[in-house]
Amino acid sequence: MSPDRAITTEPEPDELHLGATDTGAPLLEVDDLRVRFTAHGRRVHAVNGLTYRLWPGRMLAIVGESGSGKSVSARTLMGLLPPTAELSGSARFDGVELLGLSEREMRGRRGADIAMVFQDPARSLNPTMRIGAQITEAIRAHAQVSKDQAGQDALELLRLVRLAAPERRFHEYPHQLSGGMRQRVMIAIALAANPRLLIADEATTSLDVTTQAQIMELLLDLQRRLNMAVVLISHDLGLAASYAEDVIVMYAGRAVEYAPTSTLFEHVRMPYTRALLGAVPVLDREAHALLPVIPGQPPDLGSLPDGCAFRPRCPAATDECAQAPPFAEHEPGHWWACWHPVTDEEGAA
Ligand SMILES: Nc1ncnc2c1ncn2[C@@H]1O[C@H](COP(=O)(O)OP(=O)(O)OP(=O)(O)O)[C@@H](O)[C@H]1O
């Protein structure tokens, strides 16, 4: 791996070693992914050249403020964007290009290859169906098994996600379960088709701290036992620091810093990451979550400035920042996009 290798407009996928473990081929290879929407005559540049790799059995956290493109980049992998979204770049799962697959092809893969767990289990579950029936249905959507067999498998999944009293809960409705229990059920449904990649999109955000830790421990355990790859999407850097092996920090639809977790937190380089670390979380009633708030205006994805998008809010910005800094591997395994990186002394201050 040569330091100072830059990804500019044309990444060279074969040379990229983002998060390299040197233990075989990556499961997921995302290259220069771009997503644009046109809404009410306005173009929104939601993802602006995202590149990363993910290996089986590893957890990658994608962190950043609200609106930085975390969810859109994940939904792209699941084929869950509106058909009018404009996509470019590449996202290969086990060597197969996902961009451009038909809805039918995508439906076959969704759940089976890649599954997703969202923030609000109350909204994702069917309130009129018993828990067991919902998991059984998810199993039968992907495999031709008898109803009895699927029922037994569903119960086994409830045990796998360590739901207390699974036999009883199997016959209950979502409203009879706590938020943490409902999230365990959502994870069981996500696991119904043995996915190799699980995307947890703010999956613990609406839970209390103790339940959040329990669900994260469960994800970690499943990741190890099933050798599953996990993408953890969160605005919470603390969560990323505690559970993920690698972290990507996104700003305005771009990766701005990437490193193995310990490197990122011990040697933070991006002023934006440092600001996120120092931000005092504020309660956002709409998101039911404590969100980090950084001084200054979040970027307008309809008209991003030339150069570094964080420039208007950055304490270290100079005229040089009007030129986009390349996202490059400046130290072994540590990538960032900044002309004026934070020093270790500043980072520790
Ligand atoms: N269907 C859509 N049409 C138009 N704009 C969209 C659509 N979906 C997302 N966006 C916009 O894309 C940008 C990125 O959104 P995204 O949900 O990926 O952010 P995020 O980092 O996941 O933040 P959050 O944690 O708030 O979900 C936002 O400005 C959002 O409004």
From TrEMBL:
<comment type="similarity">
    <text>Belongs to the ABC transporter superfamily.</text>
</comment>
<dbReference type="Pfam" id="PF00005">
    <property type="entry name" value="ABC_tran"/>
</dbReference>
<dbReference type="Pfam" id="PF08352">
    <property type="entry name" value="oligo_HPY"/>
</dbReference>
<dbReference type="InterPro" id="IPR013563">
    <property type="entry name" value="Oligopep_ABC_C"/>
</dbReference>
<dbReference type="InterPro" id="IPR003439">
    <property type="entry name" value="ABC_transporter-like_ATP-bd"/>
</dbReference>
<keyword id="KW-1003">Cell membrane</keyword>
<keyword id="KW-0472">Membrane</keyword>
<feature type="region of interest" description="Disordered">
    <location>
        <begin position="1"/>
        <end position="22"/>
    </location>
</feature>
<keyword id="KW-0547">Nucleotide-binding</keyword>
<feature type="domain" description="ABC transporter">
    <location>
        <begin position="28"/>
        <end position="277"/>
    </location>
</feature>
<dbReference type="InterPro" id="IPR017871">
    <property type="entry name" value="ABC_transporter-like_CS"/>
</dbReference>
<dbReference type="InterPro" id="IPR003593">
    <property type="entry name" value="AAA+_ATPase"/>
</dbReference>
<dbReference type="GO" id="GO:0005524">
    <property type="term" value="F:ATP binding"/>
</dbReference>
<keyword id="KW-0067">ATP-binding</keyword>
<dbReference type="InterPro" id="IPR027417">
    <property type="entry name" value="P-loop_NTPase"/>
</dbReference>
<protein>
    <submittedName>
        <fullName>Murein tripeptide/oligopeptide ABC transporter ATP-binding protein OppD</fullName>
    </submittedName>
</protein>
<dbReference type="InterPro" id="IPR050388">
    <property type="entry name" value="ABC_Ni/Peptide_Import"/>
</dbReference>
<keyword id="KW-0813">Transport</keyword>
